[in-house]
Structures are given as C-alpha cells and as structure tokens.
Amino acid sequence: MANVDIKMTVNGAEVEASAEPRTLLIHFLREQLGLTGPHIGCDTSHCGACTVDINGKSVKSCTMFAVQAAGSDILTIEGMANADGSLHALQDAFREHHGLQCGFCTPGMIVRAHRLLQENPNPSDEEIRYGIAGNICRCTGYQNIVKAIRVAAEQLNASQEAAE
Ligand code: FES
Ligand code: FES
Q1: Count of helix runs (H) and strand runs (E) in the chain
Q2: In this predicted model, what pLDDT tens digit does every residue of 36-71 receive, in sequence order?
Q3: Burial class (CB in 10 A: 0-12, 13-18, 19+), 67
Q4: What distance in Å separates the CA atoms of residue 26 and residue 120, rounded to the nearest whole number?
Q5: 48 CB within 6 A, ligand 1
Q6: Would you say the CB of residue 49 lies under 6 angstroms from ligand 1?
Q7: How far is the CA of 51 from the centre of ligand 2 (A)?
C-alpha cells in the first residue's frame, strides 16, 4: 500500500514522515522518528510500555495507527526533561527512590505519571496505584514506583507554591 505523509507535533517540534496507513503509532515513533523511548512490551494493549501523551491524554501507542495521530500534539519520554536539560521531577524521583530496575516499563510509566499528576496534583497512594493500573512492571513490585510518584508530586507542588 502506498505511503502517506503524516505530520504531527512531537515533544514541541513539528515533524513529518511517510508511512504506510497500517503503521501503528508506536512503530512510527520508533522507526520513522527514531524515538525509541516508548517501548513495545506486548503489542496487545496490555503492558503500557508504549504509553505516550496525546493531546493531554495517556494513550498506549500500539492501539492506534500513526495516521490517526496526524495533527496531534504528542509527548514522549524524550520530551520530559526540563528546558535547561535537567531531569523532570518524576525522572529524578524514579532514579532517587529506585522506581525502576530493568527500566523497560519506565518511559511509559513516567509519561503516564506525568498525566496523572496533571489530572490530580496531589494523589493518594491508592489513587496513584489506580492511575498507573494500565502500566505493568515485572521488576519492582510497584512500591517504589508509587513512592517516586508521590515524592515527585510533593516536589512539583512545592515548586508551584514557591513560584506563586
Ligand atoms: S506495547 Fe502497547 S500496551 Fe504493550
Ligand atoms: S523496571 Fe523492569 S519492567 Fe519495570
């Protein structure tokens, strides 16, 4: 089938690439755009390793075609760092509090946690667990992931208050 040109905004930059209409978004991101942060853990919509943020919602990028995301505003783990290049509070907290082991789930987990904290800046541990229920980690037992998200939330809230 003939390729189609697909334009979208990814991590703040407008991008355009050509792909077959059947190309899944996760494959488009990884293979056409070279963004290999989002991972493929299952290809069946279960693991959440491919999670990206699309127009303000967490989406498993193996569940849609790239053409369906044309014109969208997408955030991947590659766009999470602060403008000065320092780690985002979530990335820092995952590192400091052992929220990862092999790291395979981490890009999707952090992008999902980012949206969760946009939706609920001060979640309880139960709300964090519910919020990341679509993201599977086979290493950590989740305890330190929940802790890292809680610490990041506290830090982001403190920074927000200091800025006001
Ligand atoms: S690769 Fe998309 S949910 Fe597992
Ligand atoms: S750290 Fe290995 S799957 Fe989560």
Answers
A1: 5, 5
A2: 999 999 979 999 999 999 999 999 999 999 999 999
A3: middle
A4: 27
A5: yes
A6: yes
A7: 14
